[in-house]
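User: Sequence recovery, please. Input:
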């Protein structure tokens, strides 16, 4: 493995541990990831149940103990991951490395910030390893294409969003002048809030226009909202149509930093230079 270096013997404890934790082949590596995913789901479930007041009153101590137990286990696992890789910086700064760290910090921060343990639900992102465990990484090629399309259309979407912001500010200001405080439009920001809710077709109904002019403007904004919703979809779709491959090519996963490479011609990871393993 490139992350251990050529001097590492395949029979050393460090190498065997690496093969179990980062390995993709059937055996203990697959079992380890499957067990890890089950533990992640159980720990997130405990955090979610702890947010229910009735359960927290009855079983708060037990749920708190369960959360700490899982956090200690995940901390040990994180330290072992650091120990068995050669390029520690590559792993710790990778996507999964950052998620692994963020998944254990909230529980420790809860000692200083009450309620901080609820942020531990971020560890559910670690379940994304299921793509690697069950050999589904090939489907991430499509995700990479979508990501590329979004990145290529970011300037068009930015112009679109700026236009929308200008529209809601103008409409919110008009509603403030037309309806006034009696209808709930107590300020321009309040009117802008109403414009956003109406333009996105959410329609909470907490503020409603009362005058015929205000209702006519509201009807115009509602109709405009349906047209606006389709704009970013069309922008991204146009970019997708211009991309070669359409996501049909297989993705490869880096055994070192777990980066998903969608370039079919890539043979080595662009971040840690490890040889990529094809999952086609």
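Assistant: Recovered sequence (280 residues):
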């Amino acid at each position: 493995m490139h992350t251990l270096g050529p001097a590492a013997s395949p029979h050393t404890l460090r190498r065997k541990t690496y093969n179990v934790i980062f390995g993709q082949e059937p055996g203990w590596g697959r079992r380890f990831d499957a067990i890890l995913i089950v533990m992640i789901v159980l720990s997130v479930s405990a955090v979610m149940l702890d947010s229910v007041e009735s359960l927290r009153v009855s079983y708060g101590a037990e749920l708190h103990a369960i959360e700490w137990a899982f956090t200690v286990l995940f901390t040990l696992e994180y330290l072992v991951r650091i120990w068995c890789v050669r390029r520690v910086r590559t792993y710790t700064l990778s996507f999964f490395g950052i998620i692994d760290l963020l998944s254990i910090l909230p529980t420790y921060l809860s000692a200083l910030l009450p309620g901080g343990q609820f942020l531990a639900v971020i560890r559910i992102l670690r379940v994304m390893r299921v793509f690697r465990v069950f050999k589904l990484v090939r489907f991430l090629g499509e995700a990479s294409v979508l990501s590329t399309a979004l990145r290529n259309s970011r300037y068009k979407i930015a112009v679109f969003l700026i236009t929308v912001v200008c529209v809601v500010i103008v409409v919110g200001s008009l509603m403030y002048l037309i309806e006034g405080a009696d209808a709930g439009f107590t300020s321009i920001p309040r009117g802008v809030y109403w414009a956003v809710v109406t333009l996105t077709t959410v329609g909470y109904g907490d503020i409603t226009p009362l005058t015929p002019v205000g209702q006519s403007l509201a009807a115009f904004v509602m109709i405009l909202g349906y047209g606006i919703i389709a704009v970013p979809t069309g922008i991204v779709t146009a970019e997708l149509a211009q991309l070669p491959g359409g996501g049909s090519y297989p993705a490869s996963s880096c055994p070192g930093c777990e980066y998903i490479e969608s370039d079919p011609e890539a043979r080595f990871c662009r971040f840690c230079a490890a040889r990529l393993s094809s999952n086609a």
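The longest strand covers residues 252-253.
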